[in-house]
Amino acid sequence: MTKKRTSEVLSKNQLKAVEALISYDTVADAALAAGLARDTLYRYLKNSVFDGELKKAKRIMVDQAVLSLQRSCKDAAAALADICKDKDSPPSARVSAAREILGQTMKALEVESIEERLKALEDRLNLN
Questions:
Q1: Domain spans of the chain?
Q2: What does the alpha-carbon distance between residue 28 and residue 100 come to, in Å, rounded to a whole number?
Q3: Which tens digit of pLDDT belongs to each residue from 38-87?
Q4: What is the number of other CB atoms lying within 10 angstroms of the CB of residue 30?
Q5: Alpha-carbon distance 22 to 29, whole Å?
Q6: Which residues of 32-42 are buried (b: 16+ CB within 10 A; e: fewer)?
Q7: Contacts of 55 (CB under 8 A, 6+ apart)
């Protein structure tokens, strides 16, 4: 996580543990990074409040990653379009790019259609 977290429910050591657990692959590495005993982290992990805060931190991290990917979508689409249009690209690359563009476009249209139908159903249910 990029921002330092504060908490009314976790101690400073527990906050360090949360940061370390989302940053390192193993509990042992996280404990070392946080300057805490491995057994302490395992004890924290058994605490439901700590577990809830850890899950929140993970969700924030995933949300940030998704946002980063979404920011790259325009560039990715442009790259596919460039490959598709480039007469000097190998035919297989152009076909793959075209297939991906068409496939993703169809998926987006399907999702949009499902969302519209779901909204209409929800509106009908809310009227009753």
A1: 8-73, 86-128
A2: 42
A3: 999 999 999 999 999 999 999 999 999 999 999 999 999 999 999 999 99
A4: 21
A5: 11
A6: eebebeeeebe
A7: none
